[in-house]
Amino acid sequence: MTYLRRAHPLWFAYLLHRISGLALALFLPVHFWVLSRALTAPQDLDRFLAFAELPAVKLAEWGLVFLLSVHAFGGLRLLALEWLPWQPRHKTLAAGAVALSMLVSGTFFLQAW
Amino acid sequence: MSGTDGIGTINVSVWRGGPEGGAYQQFDVPRHESQTVLDTVAWIQQEADPTLSYRFACRVGMCGSCAMMVNGVPRWTCRTHVDKVLHDDRMEIAPLRNLPVIKDLAANMDPFFDKWVKAGGVFEGTDTRQDGFAPVVHESADRAEADAGIECINCAVCYASCDTVAGDPNFLGPAALNRAWTLVNDAKDASRDRVLDAVSASGGCHSCHSMGNCQQYCPNGLSPLSAIAGLKRATVRRAFRGR
Amino acid sequence: MEFRLYLLQRISALIMVPLVLGHIAVMIYAVQDGLSTDEILSRTRGSVFWAVFYGTFVVAVAIHAAIGLRTITREWLGVTGVTLDGFAAATCFGLLAMGMNAVAAVTLAP
Known about the structure:
Number of helices of chain A: 4
Helix content of chain A: over 70%
Number of helices of chain B: 10
Largest sheet of chain A: none
Number of strands of chain A: 0
Shape of chain A: elongated
Order of helices and strands of chain A: HHHH
Strand content of chain A: under 5%
Radius of gyration of chain A: 17 Å
Distance between the termini of chain A: 41 Å
Shape of chain B: elongated
Strand order of the largest sheet of chain B: 2-1-5-3-4
Oligomer: heterotrimer
Structural class of chain A: mainly alpha
C-alpha cells in the first residue's frame, strides 16, 4: 500500500489516533493481567510496582497516559466533527487535542517522577 | 512546446507498464518557462517515445482527464506548473493510485464510476412533464449544502488521495459519497432514504476516518470530508428519530 | 452491520469519556509518592463504586477496542469476511474476560 508523500495536519491527526488506539489495545491485556495478580499473587504485584519505579518505566507510563489522552481528546474532536454542525477549524481542534494531552500527561509525569 | 529556447532539462521518471506491473523510465525533458507537468508528458510522447499512453482533453483545468500522481501526490497535470513540484530538477509521474492500470499513465476509471452509482448517485425525480418547474430555493440550508458539492467533475484525485480507499477496496470513496450527500440535500430528489441506505452498507460513509486528504487535494476546493460527516449525521438522526 | 458497529463504536466512546477522564485523574492522584499494592487495594477492595466504574469501563473498552482492531486488521492486513469478524469477536471476549478478572481481583473483598 503506497502512502501519499505530502502529509498534512488532519492526516497526522488520523494516524496519531490510529496508532494510539492500536498501542492502547495491545497494552490492555498486559494491564489487566498485572492487576489480576493482586488477587492470586499480591507479592507479584508488589514486585511489579517496585519495578515500575524505574525511570524508564515512568517514562513509558507517561507515554501511555499521553496516548490515552490524545486518543480520548482526538476522539472527542471526531465525535464533534461527525455529530455536531460542521466547523471548518478542525486543524485547530486537532492541535488543541494534542496540546491538552501534553498538559494532562505532563501533570501525571510530574507526579509520578 | 518545441524549439531551443529551453532553460535546461529536467529528469522525469514516468511509470510504464500495465495490469501485470511495470517500472519507471527516465526521460530528459527540455525545460521551459510556465511549463506544466502535462506539457512534459506530451513532449515525451511526441518527441521521445510515441508508445507512452496518457489521458488529457481540455488541458485548461476543466475536465479532470489529466489527473496523475506527481511526486506521490494526485494532481491535475495541466494545472500543475513544473516549477512548483521539481525536487532537484527531478519529477516522478505515475498513474492515479487506488485504480487499476490500463497502460502507463492511463488508469481504469470503471471502479470509480461503479461506486458513484453504488452510493446512490442516480437522481430520482418526482415531477412529470405535466407539472410546473420545481422551484429551487437557493437560500435554503439544504440547497447551500448541495451547492457546495455539485462542482465535482469526477477526476478521481480525491479517490486517489484517500488512504482508506487504499486499505479497503470496498470503500465507496470521497467522490461517490460527496455526490450522495448532494442528492440527500436536493429537494427535488425523491430517493433520500434509498441514498441513505446505500451509504450505510459495507464500505459506506461510516468507513471514513476523516483524514481529510480528499479536502486537501480536491483541485475544485470541494470537501467530501464535510459531505461524509453530513451523511453520518443524517444516518444517525434517521436511526434515532426516524427522519 | 457496518452502521451498527459504527454506532456501537461511537456510543462506547461516549460512555468512556467520563470514565477515561476519571481514570486519568485517579492515576494522577494515586501515583504521588509511589504505588503499592496495599495502597491501591485499600481504596478499591469492597468498593461497589469502583466495581461499577471499572466494570463499565471494561465492557465499553472491550467493545470499542474490538471494533477498532477489526478496522485496522481489515485496512492494514487485508483480512475480510468471517475471519475478520471472528477475530473481532475473539478480541472482544478476550478483553472482557481479562478485564472482568482484573476488576474482580481489585474490588472483591478477600
